[in-house]
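Field log, afternoon session.

UNIT: design team B
ACTIVITY: writing a sequence onto a fixed backbone
BACKBONE:
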């Protein structure tokens, strides 16, 4: 059975590009347009990895990570931040919230898939 990865980004084109990379590698993909939308879509189904932007309307990525970590079904789900944010302070904040990796946009699909394969839950 395919592993499910959720992509959370306010850019539809970025969700599409990441989604194509993941689907071509055999993953199922869920999408959220921001943190609040993503939380609504996390309804208990198994999600093996979450890839999230940091700067989004309604709920930013770091707040999303904090909320995900409060949900018993997703407490251990790894989160990768995929963002243009490169400030050390933001990275530290993301790590403190529970993010497992930090990747900068524009991303390179093989590099993204390598990170996904390393972090995706069994």
């Amino acid at each position: 059975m395919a592993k499910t990865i959720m992509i959370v980004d306010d850019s539809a084109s970025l969700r599409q590009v990441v989604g194509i990379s993941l689907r071509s590698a055999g993953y199922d993909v869920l999408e959220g347009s921001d943190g609040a939308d993503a939380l609504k879509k996390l309804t208990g189904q198994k999600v093996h990895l979450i890839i999230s932007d940091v700067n989004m309307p309604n709920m930013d990525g770091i707040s999303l990570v904090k909320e995900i970590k409060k949900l018993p079904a997703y407490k251990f789900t790894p989160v990768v931040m995929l963002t243009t944010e490169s400030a050390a302070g933001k990275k530290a904040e993301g790590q403190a919230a529970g993010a497992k990796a930090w990747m900068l946009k524009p991303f390179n699909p093989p590099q993204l898939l390598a990170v996904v394969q390393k972090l995706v839950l069994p």
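LOG NOTE: The chain has five helices and five strands.
NEXT ACTIVITY: expression trials, pending approval
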